[in-house]
Give the backbone structure.
Amino acid sequence: MRTRITLVATSVVAVALVLGAVGFWFTLRTSLHDALRSAAEQDAAVIAERIDADGLGSFSEPDERLVQVVDEAGTIIFATDDAPATPVADDDGAPPVHVDGETFITAVEGFSTDGVDGIVIVGRDTESADETLATVARLLWIAVPLITVLVALTAWVIVGRALSPVERMRRQVAGVTAATLAQRIDEPPADDEIGRLAHTLNGMLDRLEAAQATQRRFISDASHELKSPLAALRQYAEVARAHPERITLDELGDAVLDEGGRLERLVQGMLVLANADEGALRIEHSDVDLDDLLLDEAKRVRSAARLAVDTSGIAAARVQGDPVLLRQLVRNLVDNAARHAATGITLTVAPVADATSVVLTVSDDGDGIPADERERVFERFVRLDDARARDTGGSGLGLAIVREIVAAHGGAVRIDAGAGEPGTRMVVTLPATAGD
């Protein structure tokens, strides 16, 4: 970049200098030639006035000027010694003429005396102007390359100094590895573009370090969770092989089905979370009746548990979303409530007053969640009571999956009840289907 910037700056300045030098030379040339033409016009006017006043005999040999006195027939009446034998001009504005290797700027002035009409032609030698122009051209040929080189060196030094913090940041970032993500870039004190770049890079490193910590924690927790059902399956298999009389085929099959289902739910949950992290959680939009999903889950819980399930608050409520993901959302909420309920759970769903959204609540009469833990329970592999949750089949992913599914549908989830209140109430708000 330093080389490119220097080349571009030098090229632009070089082109500007060349164009300026050429323009200056031609402007100077025009100015000098105009001055010579003006002097020639003054000389011609003076000579013509003298001839008009005193006649042709009053004309004397001028100094170094080229002079021709021509009558109306084109005959040269008088001319200086070095003048050509034919008139060199017949009107003002004629181009320069060349006589014996010299160049003259000419002017023409008319006269009338002693019955003779004619013109006076005066030429001014351009030698002094040509010498001036040649001197200026030599100076420009020297000055333009020197200035160009000076600009190139200046640009090289300035750009190098300006980019030195960037190069230092590059070396520091190049030294950052997965094992050294805690390192940070030195931020320049100036609040300029480079300072803001360093601040942005440090922010990126902060996010990478946090993401790495989350990933490691996720892998560690996932490995631990997968190890439990796998260990249980291995234990049953080893006991069945070593002591077939102690475990019947039905008991072995039930154990395999239970632990296999636990593994399946865990892997499916991690897949949902992984897709959500990558922004690849696909939503198949269709109309979904949340009341039907809640009633199905209520029926399942009644048949499988001793809990009372209150469904009196369920009203018709339709949203647009993914049926599979929304069913998983409802199941996770209901399973979480059933796992922590003392005697029963309450399910409600209904559109809000303006019909723009639907509010779904799942409540239990358990111990509740302290206020300072309400956000943490939505993190992955978080259990407020690890031993009880693992014993009852919880993986610590259910509420994390709920939050990702709700976010993917443009909704929100929160916990209303807490310490000092009976149980916990999960509140989910989802956009209602248009027209409902």
